[in-house]
Amino acid sequence: MHTDLSKAFLLFIDDDRLQRKLFPEVLQPLGVEILTAANAENALDIISDRRPDLILCDAVMPVTDGFQFCKQIKDDPATRDLPFAIITSLSQNVGERSLQVGADDFFLKRASEDLLRLRVRMLLDIATRGVSIGEPLESFAGSRVLAASASALLLSQLSLQLAPAGIQVDTCAGAGEILDHLDGPPPALLVLDASMANGLLKDVAASVRSQPTWAAVPILVVAGKGEEPGAEIPVNDWVTKPLDGREARRRITMSLRYGRAMQ
């Protein structure tokens, strides 16, 4: 289940002309309207005329870079509620710097097109349904997450990340146990290990989506290199192995926000 994005408006900011051409093409399957700007000044002119549902901004730009522009947007009471994600080719401290300036998310330009579409889709679904995109993980205290993996280490890592926020983590070892859960109450989030035996990820995800009471449950995949789910597998996001604690919390938090928006 997704929001109709035909009326959504996304603003993409990048000083590179080629990127301003290519990135909207990547997002075209979402059906969202996209305007582009070459710099922060041009972007402000657009925002003053029409508020976007999401701002995607390159990190490295002359005069005002993406981090500075994000801080400017978030420091202004008139625009601070605008969802803002930074997109970059940088590889070090991007997540930390993005959080410091108030960005709601960040993407790496080298990420796969499937992943970029999933994350932009998630941000737009949340924003266009009126749910705060800045809710912290702790705001989901009392929620239940169902995690499936044959790796006891992975399940333990997830529990350690979520327990301090008051989130219950139920675990199961494989696909069969997940299917047994489908007759019961749905969790707030389903976390699936892509290393499922016999490549069952697609079948499990499809089974979850076909169950009416579970259809809107967000599915987050933990994937190693070469295990990333393709567009044909109905999941909402993935996080890579080995699991980084801060990135896992960020992706889990966004997935829970999405689940709340789709209720």
Mean pLDDT level: 92
Order of H and E elements: EHEHEHEHEHEHEHEHEEH
At CATH's second level, what is the architecture of the largest domain? 3-Layer(aba) Sandwich
Identify the strand order in the major beta sheet. Answer: 2-1-3-4-5
- The residue fraction in helices comes out at 25-40%
Q: C-alpha Rg, in Å?
A: 18 Å
CATH fold assignment of the largest domain: Rossmann fold
CATH uppermost class of the largest domain: Alpha Beta
Tell the overall outline.
Answer: globular
Largest sheet: 5 strands, parallel
Oligomer designation: single chain
The proportion of strand residues reads: 15-25%
Tally of DSSP helical segments: 9
Tell me how many strands there are.
10
The CATH homology group name of the largest domain: Response regulator
* Secondary structural class: alpha/beta
Query: What number of structural domains do the residues give?
Result: 2
Sequence stretches where pLDDT stays below 50 over 5 or more residues: none
Distance between the termini: 10 Å
Explained architecture:
38% of the residues lie in helices and 18% in strands. With 263 residues, it is of the alpha/beta class. The chain folds into two domains: 9-128, Response regulator (Rossmann fold), CATH 3.40.50.2300; 137-261, Rossmann fold (3-Layer(aba) Sandwich). The strands form two sheets. Strands 2-1-3-4-5 form a five-stranded parallel beta sheet, sandwiched between helices. Strands 7-6-8-9-10 form a five-stranded parallel beta sheet. It is globular, with a radius of gyration of 18 Å.
